[in-house]
């Protein structure tokens, strides 16, 4: 029971959820999965009477069974405390005939806070009693993950965090969020290159044996806060149950009614958490995967072939600009009834050829739950504008991708929830432009102010107060310098 998780590529060598969280990825390159998912139905009636915090304890207790109830209670208390500017943590609000699940009320104004406020606490609880090696978290970011990881891990004892972002390729506000981060245990560095350069080099650093040995000699181990970590996936399951409970309490659904969720998707972590919720007993009619111009998932769900050999598009929903959706590997495992051999061979095809084709029986299972759709940048802008003009709701470009896709689906009588993954003020310039305003030559803060004036809404103070904060991190390096930066950061912040 406690050795609960094993790799998607082999059921040998099971580990506890604590071990899975500390390791991040399985030694064979697979992702950790549990076979207990189907056998653990949560009592819905109870969930509908519960607070977000109670539901979080229940969900985490089910998915991470070797943590004690006391450990989880204290993790939940700390992760979803006063750093959230909504008392209910992830509120559900009306969106015309549909509903908006607002996941952006955390400290960095993006949905990644739901998981990254929790992961450091789970890691600390997992480490206590497991020796006293210190951990350096190393992360590459295209914008949102970096700040959420800095905020989550800042000040955590025995842990450091290093973030690399591509110089000139994140929004003004996203850059400021990172370079103004305080805390004695954080390091931030811009890289002359793309996000893929950052990500590729971080992967190489994790595989660098000589570096690992040098760090080991100083009692330090490298780890990742990537969205493939079970400790990031599990907390996201909570808001599917909690939002369902909110719909029932609002009278928008009756207990037991099926609900459809539409999810702006990049790495497939968020929508996979919805699939977990469904397997744990939540009445989910459809999970809708919404993509931007990087529509590799739309093509996959339509054709059964995943093909990453395509042009990469830079869009106004940058957190979804991704060609390899890592968490899809977990869906392949579950949809094939745990066929590790099949998953291994598909992943080998992806590595060798850049593409794989999934057998029809597995695609049938996937298509029985998942729908899909895409939105171009123009469609995304038009949706931001119409949602504001017609419904008076201001949404960010990622949320607008999902809203566009949801609007294109035929109504099926079920209550429909659009997941809202970031505050519109994180992308003020693009949102302002979508509303028809001129933004050329304006700074991020000028756009923020203009957006407030135009809409009469208020920017979250976490973002508007960035202008008062000092820029603390000005390091820039080439891809080749990232390894040395990590080693120096270990010396500087972990001693
Ligand atoms: C990360 C992110 C996404 C994509 O989520 P995945 O779990 O990677 O599919 C969508 N929107 C925003 C704002 C994000 O930061």
UniProtKB/TrEMBL annotation:
EC id: 4.2.3.1
- Gene Ontology CC: cytoplasm
Coiled-coil ranges (or none): none
Q: Which residues carry this modification: N6-(pyridoxal phosphate)lysine?
A: 112
| Record carries keyword Membrane | no
Report the residue ranges that make up the Tryptophan synthase beta chain-like PALP domain in this protein. Answer: 103-406
PROSITE patterns reported in the protein's UniProt record? DEHYDRATASE_SER_THR
Pathway(s) where this gene product acts: Amino-acid biosynthesis; L-threonine biosynthesis; L-threonine from L-aspartate: step 5/5
Q: Which InterPro entries match?
A: Ser/Thr_deHydtase_PyrdxlP-BS, Thr_synth_N, Thr_synth_N_sf, Thr_synthase-like, TrpB-like_PALP, TrpB-like_PALP_sf
Q: Which GO terms describe its biological process?
A: threonine biosynthetic process
| Keywords assigned | Amino-acid biosynthesis, Lyase, Pyridoxal phosphate, Threonine biosynthesis
The protein's annotated catalytic reaction(s) are:
O-phospho-L-homoserine + H2O = L-threonine + phosphate
Q: Which family does the record claim for this protein? A: Belongs to the threonine synthase family.
Check the record and name the NCBIfam families matching this protein.
thrC (TIGR00260)
Q: What does this protein do?
A: Catalyzes the gamma-elimination of phosphate from L-phosphohomoserine and the beta-addition of water to produce L-threonine.
Tell me the protein's name: Threonine synthase
Look up and give the organism this protein is from.
Answer: Candidatus Olsenella pullistercoris
| Lineage, broadest ranks | Bacteria, Bacillati, Actinomycetota, Coriobacteriia, Coriobacteriales
């Amino acid at each position: 029971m406690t050795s609960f998780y094993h790799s998607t590529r082999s059921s040998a060598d099971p580990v506890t959820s604590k071990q899975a969280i500390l390791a991040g990825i399985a030694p064979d390159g697979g992702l950790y999965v549990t076979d207990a998912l189907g056998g653990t139905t949560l009592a819905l009636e109870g969930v509908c009477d519960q607070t977000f915090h109670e539901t979080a304890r229940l969900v985490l207790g089910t998915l991470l069974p070797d943590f004690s109830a006391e450990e989880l209670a204290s993790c939940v208390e700390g992760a979803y405390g006063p750093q959230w500017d909504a008392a209910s943590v992830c509120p559900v609000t009306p969106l015309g005939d549909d509903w908006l699940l607002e996941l952006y009320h955390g400290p960095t104004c993006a949905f990644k806070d739901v998981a990254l406020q929790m992961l450091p606490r789970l890691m600390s609880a997992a480490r206590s009693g497991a020796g006293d090696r210190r951990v350096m978290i190393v992360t590459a970011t295209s914008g949102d993950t970096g700040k959420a990881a800095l905020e989550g891990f800042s000040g955590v004892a025995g842990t450091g965090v290093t973030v690399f972002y591509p110089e000139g390729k994140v929004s003004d506000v996203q850059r400021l969020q990172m370079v103004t981060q305080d805390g004695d245990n954080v390091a931030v560095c811009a890289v002359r290159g793309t996000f893929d350069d950052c990500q590729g080099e971080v992967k190489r650093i994790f595989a660098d044996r000589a570096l690992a040995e040098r760090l080991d000699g100083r009692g330090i181990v490298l780890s990742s806060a990537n969205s493939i970590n079970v400790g990031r996936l599990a907390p996201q399951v909570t808001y599917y149950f909690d939002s369902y409970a909110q719909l029932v309490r609002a009278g928008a659904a009756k207990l037991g009614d099926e609900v459809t969720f539409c999810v702006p998707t990049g790495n497939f972590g968020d929508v996979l958490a919805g699939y977990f919720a469904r397997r744990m007993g939540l009445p989910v009619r459809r999970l809708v995967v919404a993509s931007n111009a990087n529509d590799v998932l739309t093509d996959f769900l339509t054709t059964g072939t995943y093909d990453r050999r395509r042009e990469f598009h830079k869009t106004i929903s940058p957190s979804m600009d991704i060609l390899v959706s890592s968490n899809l590997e977990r869906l392949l495992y579950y949809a094939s009834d745990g066929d590790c051999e099949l998953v291994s061979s598909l992943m080998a095809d992806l590595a060798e050829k850049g593409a794989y084709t999934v057998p029809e029986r597995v695609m049938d299972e996937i298509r029985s739950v998942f729908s899909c759709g895409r939105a171009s940048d123009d469609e995304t802008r038009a949706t931001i504008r119409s949602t504001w003009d017609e419904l008076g709701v201001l949404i960010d470009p990622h949320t607008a991708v999902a809203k566009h896709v949801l609007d294109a689906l035929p109504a099926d009588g079920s209550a429909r929830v659009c997941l809202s993954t970031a505050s519109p003020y994180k992308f003020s310039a693009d949102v302002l432009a979508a509303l028809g305003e001129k933004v050329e030559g304006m700074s991020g803060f000028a756009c923020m102010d203009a957006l407030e004036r135009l809409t009469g809404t208020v920017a979250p103070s976490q973002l508007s107060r960035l202008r008062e904060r000092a820029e603390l991190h000005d390091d820039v390096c080439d891809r080749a310098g990232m390894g040395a930066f990590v080693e120096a950061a270990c010396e500087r912040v972990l001693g």
